[in-house]
Amino acid sequence: MIIRKYQPSDCKELTELFYNTVHNVNAKDYTKEQLNVWATGQVDLEKWNESLQEHFSVVAADDEIIVGFGDIDKTGYLDRLFVHADYQRKGIATAICNQLEQAANGDITTHASITAKPFFEKRGYKIVKEQQVERQGIFLTNYVMIKER
Predict the structure, then answer these.
(1) Which of 26, 27, 30, 101 sees the fewest Cβ atoms within 10 Å?
(2) Please, are residues 35 and 23 in contact by the beta-carbon 8 Å criterion?
(3) 122: part of which helix (H) or strand (E)?
(4) What is the pTM of this model?
(5) How far apart are CA 137 and CA 123, in angstroms?
(6) Residues 6+ away with beta carbon under 8 Å from 46
(7) Chunked mean pLDDT (size 10), the chain, 149 residues
């Protein structure tokens, strides 16, 4: 497995990985209704690509197959961190997160899903608050977390 910088040609594959990960991995912590508004399957590839290019974004690849990705912005906000459902618990999220954290100066914040919260806690992130995020009239629980450095 290699970790490399994001390239615009990765965008469509990342949006598919995002959708599939949310609907498979996060299904144990969220209802079908919540999953459907979180990852609708309708994405604006141009906006995703723009966002991923503005942030420090990396992908994990295993023999040309993208198995995970993540990004962090200039303020230290870790925006996305997703690993393919078939590649969970293999150290991929850790490897991606290590790269993202190294790229940041100062404290790092994230909005962690119920599913991701234990992963971030093990990395030294502390819960600032639990929050309800509204998408299309449906509420999803997540956690504002910070890693102070």
Answers:
(1) 27
(2) yes
(3) helix 117-122
(4) 0.96
(5) 33
(6) none
(7) 97 98 98 97 96 98 95 97 97 98 96 98 98 97 97
